[in-house]
């Protein structure tokens, strides 16, 4: 099994639930965006803003108290952008059992100090 380090971890709390008692898909999307943004800033070595999100799926469910781990990888590197795939995996609060609960793709644009797009790798030399 491949070892992966999560970009972030969060515990689902009662305020994260929808009226049906499950964790909001929007909360899962926000956690994935936070993890993907962390990776974009690391890889891009600076400010990175999300400009697009797509292909969201929610194949599993989480309960309050479950721990969510967000795993991310860069799938496409453009001139000024990074496309990052994010996956959410829930761990049952009282066991080691895990379930994939979310997946999505985010596109980030790297910005300079003037909030203008900048190259992913270095600058024009």
Order of helices and strands: EHEEEE
Q: β content, as a range?
A: 35-45%
The total beta strand count reads 5
CATH class equals: Alpha Beta
> Which secondary-structure class do the elements indicate?
alpha+beta
Question: End-to-end distance, in Å?
Answer: 42 Å
Query: How large, in whole angstroms, is the Cα Rg?
Result: 16 Å
Count of helix runs: 1
Oligomer: single chain
- Please give the CATH architecture: Roll
If you average the pLDDT, what whole number results? 93
Could you list the spans in which at least 5 consecutive residues all have pLDDT below 50?
none
**Inertia-based shape:** elongated
Helix fraction, binned, reads 10-25%
Largest sheet: 5 strands, antiparallel
Per CATH, what is the topology? Thiol Ester Dehydrase, Chain A
In short:
The chain has 125 residues and is α+β, with helices and mostly antiparallel strands. It has one helix and five strands, in the order βαββββ.
Task: Give the SSE map.
Elements: E1 8-11, H1 25-44, E2 48-57, E3 67-77, E4 81-91, E5 98-110
Antiparallel strand pairs: 1-3, 2-5, 3-4, 4-5
Could you characterize what this model shows?
Keywords: Hydrolase. This is Acyl-CoA thioesterase. InterPro entries: Cytosol_ACT (IPR040170), HOTDOG_ACOT (IPR033120), Thioestr_dom (IPR006683). It comes from Erythrobacter ani. It holds the Pfam family 4HBT. With about 120 residues, the chain is an alpha+beta fold. It has one domain (about 10-110): Hotdog Thioesterase (Thiol Ester Dehydrase, Chain A, Roll), CATH 3.10.129. Helices cover about 15% and strands about 40% of the residues. The protein has one helix and five strands. It has a five-stranded antiparallel β-sheet with strand order 1-3-4-5-2, covered by helices on one side. A hairpin with a 3-residue loop joins strand 3 and strand 4. The longest helix has 20 residues, at about 25-45. The termini are far apart. The model has no long low-confidence stretch (mean pLDDT about 95).
């Amino acid at each position: 099994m491949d070892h992966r380090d999560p970009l972030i971890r969060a515990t689902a709390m009662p305020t994260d639930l929808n009226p049906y008692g499950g964790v909001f898909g929007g909360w899962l999307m926000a956690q994935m965006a936070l993890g993907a943004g962390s990776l974009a800033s690391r890889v891009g070595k600076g400010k990175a803003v999300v400009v697009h999100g797509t292909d969201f799926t929610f194949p599993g469910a989480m309960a309050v108290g479950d721990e969510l781990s967000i795993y991310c990888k860069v799938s496409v590197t453009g001139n000024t952008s990074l496309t990052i795939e994010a996956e959410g995996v829930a761990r049952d609060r009282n066991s080691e059992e895990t379930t994939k609960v979310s997946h999505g793709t985010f596109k980030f644009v790297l910005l300079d100090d003037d909030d203008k797009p900048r190259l992913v790798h270095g600058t024009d030399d």
